[in-house]
Amino acid sequence: EWLRREAVLTDRYRDLLDNAIDMVYTRDLQGNFTSVNNTTARVLGYTRAELLGMNIAQLVAPECQDAVRRVLETALAGTGSTEEELTVISKNGARLAVEVRGRLLNEAGKAVGVQEIARNVTEHKRMQQQVEEALRQSEEKYRSIVLNIPDVVWTIDSLGRVVFISPNIEKLGGFTAEEVRAGGLEI
Cα separation of 95 and 87, whole Å? Predict the structure, then answer.
């Protein structure tokens, strides 16, 4: 009965692992994959068999090889789990940004490998860059409007101090914008 329950739990664990959203894998101390879940194979475009014959160094972009070594060194130092952002290269050559968390695997008190969970953040980073670019363009457009409007535009902080005032203040009031801000004029 105990063995049957253990087998059921093992099957449930394997099913959970294989259907996880994140890539979950283990590798030995030399970087060779010893297990991979379905997501790892799907995201990277390799079969499980292909990945189990590979070393992590074959997937990580050259500029991120040091980070892979840091994960292992930190794990071996026994300072808990590690976290790194890496770029990996899929089978079709696509570069993917991944956040990786790893921890040391021990057997009988001896380090034998690293267990890692990697999240593909490529789309998130792309969207973040698009938002930052849209914000930059919006700020540029706003700045252009404010600097070219014939009136004076200003911003004050919660204490009533001038934080920004458009350069037209000089034409209308005789003070430069810097003099108004530095002078602590209150509005």
Answer: 6
- Return d(Cα 186, Cα 18) in angstroms, integer: 64
Cβ atoms of 167 and 181 within 8 Å: the answer is no
Can you tell me the distance from the alpha carbon of 99 to that of 84, in angstroms, rounded to the nearest whole number?
A: 6
Do 21 and 13 touch, CB atoms closer than 8 A? no
- Nearest CA to 29 out of 51, 57, 49, 50 is that of 57
Say if CB 71 and CB 82 are below 8 A apart: yes
Q: pLDDT tens-digit profile of 88-125?
A: 999 999 999 999 988 888 889 888 998 999 999 999 99
Q: Are 57 and 65 in contact (CB under 8 A)?
A: yes
The Cα–Cα gap between 97 and 102 comes to 16
Task: Report the distance separating Cα 67 and Cα 57, nearest Å.
Answer: 11
Q: pTM for this one?
A: 0.67
pLDDT tens across 128-153, in order?
A: 999 999 999 999 998 898 888 888 88
- 91 SS3 class: coil
Give the DSSP letter string of 98-117: EEEEEEEEEETTEEEEEEEE
| Residue 79 CA from chain centroid, whole number | 22
Longest dimension (CA), the chain: 92
